[in-house]
Structure formats: C-alpha cells, structure tokens
From TrEMBL:
Name this protein carries in UniProt: DUF7281 domain-containing protein
InterPro entries, per the entry: DUF7281 (IPR055705)
Lineage: Bacteria, Pseudomonadati, Pseudomonadota, Gammaproteobacteria, Vibrionales
Organism this protein belongs to: Vibrio superstes NBRC 103154
DUF7281 domain sequence ranges: 33-199
Pfam families: DUF7281 (PF23947)
C-alpha cells in the first residue's frame, strides 16, 4: 500500500459509495476499538464506517478473530444483536463479503491467517448454512432459542425454496435441527430486530 487513501476507503452505505464491494477487497471495521494495525500502521476507522482492505494485505492484519457477516445491513448493525460482544478479544475485526465468491475469499483468509478464529453470522436458512460451511468458519453466531420462537420469526417459503440445495451431515448442531423441525428459515435482521439471544456454536466438521 502506498498511501492511506489508496489503502482504505470509508463508506457509510455501500449503495452510496463510488463502487461496489470488489472481489479483491474485504470490508472490515474493528469490533471494540477505534483503530487496528495493518502493515505495521495504525488504521483509524470513524464510528459507523468501515474500510476496504486489499485481500493481499489481509495477512498483515493484527487480529486473532474475524467475525464474518453475510448481510450488509447486519454488518453495520452487528453490535445491536443480543450477544455479549465483550467476550471477543479486543483485536476482533468484523468483515463483510457480498459477492458469490464468499467461500473462496474466506478460505484465502484462513490461509493468510491460519491461527485466526473465524466466526460466521449468517441467515439461519439452508443457503446461510451452506455459506457458513463453505466459509471455513470455526464457529457461528446462532440463535439460542426454542422451536416456537424460531417458527414465529421464520419464513417457510424461504426454507422450501432453498432446502433442495442443502447438503449437511449435522455439523451445525441444535440450530440446524430447529430449522429442519420448524421447516422455516430466520434471517439475521429478524434475529437482531426481535433481540433473540445469540450464542457461539462450534461447527463440528467431519
């Protein structure tokens, strides 16, 4: 990176930015701090904003944990979710990927930062679970709730439309079982809006 303006670009809203999120960039902001270290430089991120990092520089990010978010609005509003975010390390970064190569990009992050803990926050529907699995996440932020609440907030049409593409062998535990039993999917926005408690669920990979 030659200059800060070339390295990082701040946007309040992706739709208002001069370009969409590109496949060569990862959009991030620090979860708990105002700055984070990249290429031995302290990068300042204004409140409510995020920056775009070239993927080739991800290995130089000083972080022990990435939280990977599927939805852009949820990426911005993540800390409104009903979860104790203070339980994450102080150097945690929140990341968003919006293109179809999500799984490939997350694999690149895992290769660049092999000791980094990857946490995913996805929709609790077949497509979200498939994306979580492809992302190489170590764990996911999942609703800690009962079947009645899951069905009340869920969308049966979303489940029906996507279920045929899902291939799973039980790696997601209870939250996957709730989706199957309720035959519906719950989007991230609903989990935040209705303040459904979240917990960190490990992905049990074969």
């Amino acid at each position: 990176m030659t200059t800060r303006t070339k390295t990082t670009q701040h946007f309040q809203n992706e739709k208002l930015s001069s370009h969409q999120v590109k496949s060569t960039f990862l959009s991030v902001y620090p979860l708990a701090q105002k700055t984070f270290k990249l290429n031995e430089q302290q990068i300042v991120v204004p409140k409510g904003a995020f920056i775009s990092i070239p993927l080739e520089h991800i290995s130089s990010a000083h972080t022990s944990t990435f939280i990977l978010v599927e939805n852009f609005e949820t990426f911005i509003d993540l800390k409104k979710a009903n979860f104790d975010f203070d339980s994450f390390p102080a150097d945690t970064l929140v990341a968003y990927r919006g293109d179809k190569d999500f799984g490939i990009v997350m694999s690149q992050i895992k290769q660049a930062l092999p000791t980094c803990h990857l946490v995913g926050f996805f929709d609790c529907d077949p497509q979200g679970f498939s994306m979580a699995r492809a992302s190489k996440c170590d764990s996911i932020l999942a609703p800690n709730t009962d079947l009645a609440t899951f069905k009340r907030l869920g969308q049966t049409d979303l489940f029906d439309r996507q279920y045929a593409t899902l291939k799973d062998d039980g790696v997601f535990g209870k939250v996957y079982e709730l989706m199957i039993e309720g035959q519906c999917g719950v989007v991230q926005e609903a989990l935040i809006q209705h303040q459904v408690p979240l917990h960190l669920a490990p992905i049990r990979r074969p």
